[in-house]
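explain this:
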Amino acid sequence: MEAAEGVSAATPTEEMNGAGNLMDFLDEPFPDVSTYEDFHTIDWLREKSRDTDRHRKITSKSKESLWELIKSLLDAWSGWVVMLLIGLLSGTLAGVIDLAVDWMTDLKEGVCLSAFWYSHEQCCWTSNETTFDDRDKCPQWQKWAELMTGHAEGAGAYVLNYFLYILWALLFSFLAVSLVRVFAPYACGSGIPEIKTILSGFIIRGYLGKWTLLIKTVTLVLAVSSGLSLGKEGPLVHVACCCGNLFCSLFSKYSKNEGKRREVLSAAAAAGVSVAFGAPIGGVLFSLEEVSYYFPLKTLWRSFFAALVAAFTLRSINPFGNSRLVLFYVEYHTPWYMAELVPFILLGVFGGLWGTLFIRANIAWCRRRKTTQLGKYPVLEVIAVTGITALLAYPNPYTRRSTSELISELFNDCGALESSQLCDYVNNPNMSRPVDDIPDRPAGPGVYNALWQLTLALIFKIVITIFTFGMKIPSGLFIPSMAVGAIAGRIVGIAVEQMAYHHHDWIIFKNWCRPGADCVTPGLYAMVGAAACLGGVTRMTVSLVVIMFELTGGLEYIVPLMAAAVTSKWVADAFGKEGIYESHILLNGYPYLDVRDEFTHRTLATDVMRPRRNDPPLAVLTQDSTTVEDVETLIKDTDYNGFPVVVSRESERLIGFVQRRDLTLAIKNARQKQDGVVSSSVVYFTEDAPQLPASNPQPLKLRRILNLSPFTVTDHTPMETVVDIFRKLGLRQCLVTRSGRLLGIITKKDVLRHMAQMMNQDPESIMFN
């Protein structure tokens, strides 16, 4: 009895000395407690409650002294400071990328003698010998053949220019793929599928790191300049998110909380689209509609601010020299008419069909790359595709130039001063109208010639983009998709324009198109086609329309754009719900629970939970009878993320849940910092220490790391509800109980597997935890 009393008397002091030390130690947050392993999912609820605790602590401390008050104000402002920094850096990088791409694209064809760092356009701006009609020709700019042989024209000069064009393209793409391969393997591709996955709570270490940022910026310039059928818009979102991650590490509020970090990354994605298209509001909507998983109102305002700063920075750099944020700014002078909705909707149908064709073909090709020998030779693949692209692109003037310039020309309306082939109409000699409002005219030989070249360019772009997207270089999809749509739209626009001119007495044209009037704007059709194709591939709607009218300044044309975007989404959705980014997420097996997927099957939690019938029993810890050695053995023998804690193995009543990583670190620290903790020490999760014989070594209290309110459902909860809970609360796992007794566990991976099985897909395609 005395001995027992002695023990019980000693217990509180032991607890004070031993476990107390550990608790003090855990109070100063140990660097790795509550952080996550690579390729694991974060626990949103836990991150949110940790941030609330942190906030409460700062608020209570701020009343103590002036210094603490200043610290709390700095903490409150840190979010806006991060947004400002992201906007400034991503705007600067986008401006530098635009200028470098401009120069290097022109470098494939020639060089500026007065200053080699000038692009073709800048070179001829500074020249005094340039005339308005021949604004592309000036003595300072020489093609390579003219520089080397002295002859500008002739077959020999053409062949030499052709050869050097291919050589430069191969050099650029080889440099790009080599840099990605050696320094930052994560810098390849568009980056949007991975960013969607990261924003949904998955951890991919290094994906948003400093090396990735540096290499992605450099290789993006090289890849776009090589003339491959890819854009810089998607990768710019990745670059902006890398900037966001970089600045998060400066503030502990964001660096130590994965949930808060994702709020910053959502805003960074908005800044990325803002500088990619010069569309700040479109960027915010893109982040909200397309990439973000959790988007509170506070993030909306901050995204808006980051997008504003980024757009302002890009405008200060003025990379296009036209005082606009974008290359494609257009001004149309004629309104559109109701009858034109028919061709606009047809362009929407084309966009939906192209989107479906592209997604299926590209995913089939990427799957082939993953599963065959092809994937082992990324450098060879890039060189081969670049060689074929350059070989086929050079002869056609529409594919030789950069895709952005091509889209810009297709969007343009034919003014009186246009020198493009597309504007070679037969002029009426006695035309005396203001310059702005040129009536519809019959097409001249130049237009028919351009139509042939555009048709070939369309086929070429459709085929080559399928093989380009997904290679081991930075590659965006927005610009190639827009190019396909713009070419198709311009062809349709010219066809409608000529029909209206030659058959103005037809009933469809009679009401709105009189002879001698300017009825049809082919450039508008190109714009609508571009929106339709981009919508068909990405399945964006609201953000797409806003991006398009911010991009072109065509505010009057919202209705045609909306009609085309909605039609393309309907048509594409009829063949499959996933856009290109969701398809790549599925292909890579990322654990992404799409909010838009509907789960309509009538299964219950008990059908999905583990352990199943023939499985070994669930690995659990008891509240006060497990030893340190038992815990260490359990951690060594299993790879679970955490363990439920029960009263005892007989009763199986649930007490809480403890994370594997916290358990490992707590035991490791206790062994280092606390005397008397040995393998046979009892681990307890209760408030009071268990009654133990005096001879027992000192027990170890780990209540601090126990989650006392784990999320639980009963075994008869419909899976529809469980899936909804996982989506909306961002859970990692959920325990299944009946009348307080633990029955099993459902993890996010189990939910994804079950959904894949229900959709008759391979459940093992979900690779990561």
